[in-house]
Specification:
This protein is of the alpha/beta class. It has 10 helices and 9 strands. It has a 9-stranded parallel sheet with strand order 1-9-8-7-6-5-4-3-2. β4, α4 and β5 form a beta-alpha-beta unit. The radius of gyration is 18 Å and the shape is globular. The two termini are about 25 Å apart.
């Protein structure tokens, strides 16, 4: 599908739900979303596998193939990825991929981005740096890395975990590419992020974790004879 990159508008960000199966993606089609991403945690955890180790990358590519028939763009979280896996995702129908550096050698990651763009030029490569993910953030290092990745051909850059408005504004000013941040319940609002010039807001594993919490909450409500919410989708809705 073409045009995925056009959804990334600084100041009018693409709000991107992240899905783990066909049913979750179909729900977002029904809600009017134009694009979804996969969640590496959701895909891996649903298979009983660990996240962040590439254990579920092949299943992610297979999921992309199943999602390709839906009327929306799909971008695949390939974790650290590889050229063959990125090409396979593109062939399966992905409009984009996320490739993360794991806070490793940025030269290696830049080389991977360059090779992926050479092999699949139409694929929207969102280059993720983990300067702020599960660690104390270094905004100067984040700027250095996203510039390197943009120079290597990345179509967008992603810094999950960054939350300070001044830091986000610095990232936006640093590159001539769409900047992606992770939605944080206690972080800046969508409106605030739009005003900072962010072009994409991903939800990451948030929806998968929320779904698990809601399932347990519903089971406990049944067990304890508490009222259930009345607007659940019906069996017929989901089976259809």
């Amino acid at each position: 599908m073409s045009g995925f990159g056009e959804l990334h508008i600084p100041g009018e960000p693409l709000v991107l739900p992240n899905v783990w199966d066909v049913a979750s993606a179909r729900m977002f089609v029904g809600a009017g979303f134009a694009a979804v991403g996969t969640t590496s945690l959701g895909v891996a955890a649903s298979l009983g596998l660990p996240d962040g180790e590439g254990a579920a990358v092949d299943e992610t590519v297979r999921l992309v193939g199943r999602l390709a028939a839906l009327p929306l763009y799909v971008t695949a979280d390939l974790e650290r990825g590889s050229v063959p896996v990125a090409v396979a995702a593109a062939q399966a129908g992905a409009a984009g991929v996320n490739l993360e550096d794991g806070y490793g050698d940025p030269d290696v990651h830049a080389a991977l981005i360059r090779s992926v763009k050479d092999a699949a030029p139409s694929l929207f490569v969102n280059a993720r740096t983990d300067t702020h993910w599960l660690r104390e953030g270094d905004i100067g290092e984040a700027v250095r890395r996203i510039r390197m990745y943009r120079d290597a051909g990345a179509d967008g850059v992603f810094v999950p975990g960054v939350a300070e408005p001044a830091d986000i504004a610095r990232l936006v000013a640093a590159v001539d590419a769409p900047v992606n941040v992770l939605a944080r319940p206690a972080g800046p609002s969508v409106r605030a992020l739009a005003e900072l010039g962010v072009a994409r807001i991903s939800m990451g594993s948030l929806l998968f974790r929320a779904a698990l919490a809601a399932a347990v909450e519903t089971a406990l409500a049944v067990q304890l004879d508490r009222p259930l919410r009345g607007d659940l989708p019906s069996y017929q809705d989901i089976n259809g």
